[in-house]
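Q: Structure for this?
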Amino acid sequence: MNAIAASEIKTLRLSIYRYDPLKQEKPYMQDFDIDIPAEKDLMVLDVLMLAKEQDPSISFRRSCREGVCGSDGLNINGKNGLGCITPLSDAIKSNKLSIRPLPGLPVIKDLIVDMKQFVDQYKKVKPYLITDKKVDTREAIPQTIEEREKLDGLYECIMCGCCSTACPSFWWNPDKFLGPAALLQAYRFIADSRDTATEERLEQLEDAFSVFRCHGIMNCVSVCPKGLNPTKAIGEIKKMLVKRAL
Amino acid sequence: MAMNGKGTLLDASTLPVKEFDGIIVGGGGSGMMASLQLAKSGMHTAVVSKVFPTRSHTVSAQGGITCSIQSADPDDDWRWHMFDTVKGSDFIGDQDSIEYMCKEGPEAIFELENMGLPFSRTEEGKIYQRAFGGQSKDYGKGGQAERTCAAADRTGHALLHTLFQANVKAGTNFLSEWFAVDLVKNQNDQVVGVIAFEIESGEPYFLKSKATVLATGGAGRIYQTTSNALINTGDGTGMALRAGFPVQDMEMWQFHPTGIHGHGTLVTEGCRGEGGYLVNKDGERFMERYAPNYKDLASRDVVARSMFTEILEGRGCGPDADHVYLKLDHLGPEIVHKRLPGVTELSKRFAHVDPAEHPIPVVPTCHYAMGGIPTNVHGQVISQNPDGTDKIIDGLYAAGEAACVSVHGGNRLGGNSLLDLIVFGRSAGLHIEESFKAGIKMDDPSSDDVDYALRNLNRVNVSQSGENFVEVKKDLQKTMQMNFGVFRTEELMENGIKEVSDLRDKSQNIHLADKSSQFNTARVEALELLNLIEVAEATAISANERKESRGAHSREDYPDRDDENWLKHSIYFSDTKQVSKRDVNFRPKQVQAFQPIVRTY
């Protein structure tokens, strides 16, 4: 790095959640002063990487650094989001930035949570096409532009976990309530004109917990970094379940 | 265990072993295509991936997957796609491989669609195809083709998630967040598995296998500015080089024309396929001068060089005149927001402009390695005998960007990387399945063989002092950027080779200060550096050796293509640091070979 004049630098107080279960009994917050170029609007991930240069033992996940891989779901100043596409200008409150792991999941180390419960719920909804339409390896299953448009807003999920870990219903019942991410995925296949397993899918969702623990709090919608609307998808599933029960 | 923070040495006698029929290192497109094949055949397989599979870099692919499925044009022909690919490769793509990819492609696309991939659609309900660079009808005589199958501009995401979902359905065994360190070789030069550790616990294992597939993707992180994810550190390529196997055409790096200025993140070539074009500071559509016929949809190497020429000649945009503009606003918000929603998002986020209203500042960015571990069409890794003939390595396969099969030669066409992943991931899987049915016999490695594969992990684990690996990595990226960019000269490259060699020496003496076992990402980064160094040095030495300009390799001191001496692959071994030549395949099975012609667009 070239030397930057002092006037162009501002110092940010960064506070990071630290926890290594083999070394500490309890988690703690560690403070860092990070020098950042004043004219540049860095992303939260950039600042984390600068902190890691000061202390290489800080652990967090990252990969694409452009908001498509879903690695760096974090709790940023109290709100879930992706580190790589959250600019400091959106995140910082009174020149302070606190970064914690996604809430509600066990912490493996520092900002790294155990995603097992999240992935298990995803797998439960049979997140793959089930179809009895004649499959000919020489052609595509036909789908109209309108039918395909029904998948917009559903298939783009990146499995970052921001939504489910912002959901109080998922915090209380992470094993029984499927959570917004898995339910969005469930509806993605229900809504797919090529999928013929709607009945089987709805039957699996019919209990009191899987879907109906959603109380429309809409935290999932407010945090989704891809601008998706799991609450709406859950609403559609609920409507289908109610209709089916009548 | 040994990695408990005390930094004790690991050895074969205490190392736990897990045994599989097949191991796939890498959970991106090619790895999960191979694993799907093996899981369906009931083999005991594991996918070893340093990230959860959907975090792999395939997810970032935007524009699409090129294939002649005759949707946009019922008369489209895979042979036209083959011609374009051979021409795009500047004639050092292997024609048997290109033929196989273009011919087998449609079946692979329909297989993916049948799995659920949400392709965009046409009015007739077929898969939507868009125009991409270097695409023609009728062997270059029929004008621009539309051959790239797309799911909006999120094709890689749609593809990777569909493959992950299909693997969930097939019951594939994932060793997710495991880091593979080195290959284990027996005394007969057969590969019998890998040394890997579970990142969460730090526990190391010998993962023993009769077939190991390196599907570890690219290594764009050898450069300072790249479209590549932070994880793209050439791990499989580094492992192969350290095990004594060669790489091929490693000098061939694609610089993608439209990286967002100041960040490196891409916006797809599909922007230009949908009608966008590049302008300089005078608002001139300059590609009309460089490529009168194909203009902005000329091949990527041609467009990237033209952009740099504009910038070097003072016609760049912005206060530092260091980029050009990609104009989309004339297309209208309907097209921009519907067909290019991901680009809209990235552009707003990283360039602070809505492309439906303002042009996007762009500059070429390191994007893709055409070179890699040489393989045949079955994914079997090839080494070279002393007499220059090919030698197949038992037990080792490679697929996707890590491999060099070679369908891209000196320059890859847009949309061909996803096709490469799918077709050759599958062919590697098929070959392993068939080999298993026929029966594979391999000797066990000796404990010395295993200890040898543990040497780097041990060295890092017990290091008490030495170089800061973050600094070494930064220096490496800087020297590669400075000396091995779009335009190359001997003077710069020789300087670069020396610097890379010094950095290699430093990398042999890196210090891992944090020896903790639990999810120690510093350990992963230290080991990744060793892979970056291997790839960078292979690139540097091969680039200096190829004394011509071809495809993405453009030398100011040798500005012309030299078919007499260099219609060849380069082959590089890390232990000797020597470059030799290998014949390009001109023997396709069903068509006449395409002979080299002057490449214009």
